[in-house]
Amino acid sequence: MNKKIHLVHSDEYENWVFDKTHPTQGRRFTNARNLLRAASDRGEFELIEVEPRLATPQELGRVHAQGYIHDVLDHHVTSEWQGERPDLSYLAQLFVGGTLTALELLLSGEANLAVNLPGAKHHAQYDHASGFCVFNDFAIAADVAGMDHGKKVLIIDIDGHHGDGTENLMCENSRVITCSVHQMGIFPGTGWACTTAISTTFLWKRVREMTDSSRVSITSFVNSSTCVGISGGSQTSFSWRLGRMDMRRIHSLA
Questions:
Q1: 76 is a catalytic site residue
Q2: Which residue of the set 6, 123, 161, 162 is catalytic?
Q3: Average pLDDT of the segment spanning 25-47
């Protein structure tokens, strides 16, 4: 079996529950893991499960304000949940560690495809939580890959909502490109074509500039369950399909 997926997963992920009626429910991560395990059992690919580690406060501080980190980790409060929730602040820290574990597998060459299902908290901002997102794991991972390992990073965000936090945190990082494809007019109300969107031609021109004339390694983070297509589900009316030509362009740069 040639195809391998490294899945960073912990049974603790299931405890990500703000309240019983909240749209964010940790059982989604377990359900998705079980679907991957079933597909692996059918011989579709080999699934290798890896336990996540906790992100350190220093790693969180690469993109977040120290006061904000202190509020979450020490006082267990954010604007996203009611009261003090040490269980959720711990999981928010673990989610970042899970994405960094996936990144480490990629950087070491142990994995070609690594997945951390509760990752991609793309609304989290420098000094506050937003959109159910507490710490911006993609921005942290991109900063690590770029600044510490000299990688050039392409983040393709095909969630139905604009990836405003990741875009804001990485906008001055010359080693990172963020590309968000999303439904306009819904939360967070940003990412309008007249302000932030760029043409496909300009995007590929920018990617080519980053890769220079030589073949370099690009760490590519994709915020979605699939690189092929996505529908927004109950939270959006957004649907789209990534063209074969665009997929070939992405793979040719890796």
A1: no
A2: 123
A3: 95
